[in-house]
């Protein structure tokens, strides 16, 4: 299995390590009947039912499969070491497809009885963190909304933060720092999923979700909300969290009670921007993404998920026929 990068917070600083996972699931076969890894065969079996134009090549397919098997082995290794991972938090947007591949692979392995007894796939969550993301990490309002989103889910638990590809490590380091500060997990580590960018990395329309935080990054309403304190943002959250966006789409309406109206006035937010206030609350100040709004992107991303599922399922079938290799 390829080497991977991980990041451990030892309480003083975040240290980076490179190593190998000593898993027991094995890898995908290197020798097929034609004498080479047959990722092309896997792709040919699934692409005929799809309309996707930009298909991954053989090397990218092999890398995505190996990385996902590597991540599954990491989960098992941590369990065998007596320190199981409770949560896998994947970084949106790009790591989300990796989470889908892991779920699909885990299901296929479980069907074959390859998951050791007692080992369960950790609960999967998502958080939107990028390398140029300092704004929301410094905002009391955004951090409060993130806390409200996941409550005490991670407190006292072991968390692995997963990035699809690590270049500088800044996204993982920033995520480790924020999650540790906001949620106080028992232990937290950062993990690289793939050793090079996966196929979807350069294709935003394959990623299922979008980052409206970036659309508003220079918007004054977001900036004003960033300046709210915890008490103010919680008051707005309680009113708006269960109300539809259309109620705030440019209208000052009866759903806004006097206390929230006062807060919005203090923050100098114009009533015509209440739809942006709604967005800010529902994406936790930028820590969450939203599903695609564009119907073409929705359809394309769904087809892409079918492609990823087909790749995993067909690769496992080839693996059944040709045996599995162990590189420990």
How would you characterize this protein structure?
- The chain is α/β, with parallel strands linked by helices.
- The protein folds into two domains: about 230 residues, Rossmann fold (3-Layer(aba) Sandwich); about 70 residues, no CATH class.
- The chain is about 45% helix and about 10% strand.
- The protein has twelve helices and eight strands.
- The strands form two sheets. The chain has a six-stranded mixed beta sheet, with helices on both faces. A two-stranded antiparallel sheet has the order 7-8.
- The longest helix is centred in the C-terminal third of the chain and has 28 residues.
What brief labels describe this structure?
328 residues, alpha/beta, Rossmann fold, 2 domains, 6-stranded mixed beta sheet, two-stranded antiparallel sheet, 12 helices, 44% helix, 12% strand, globular
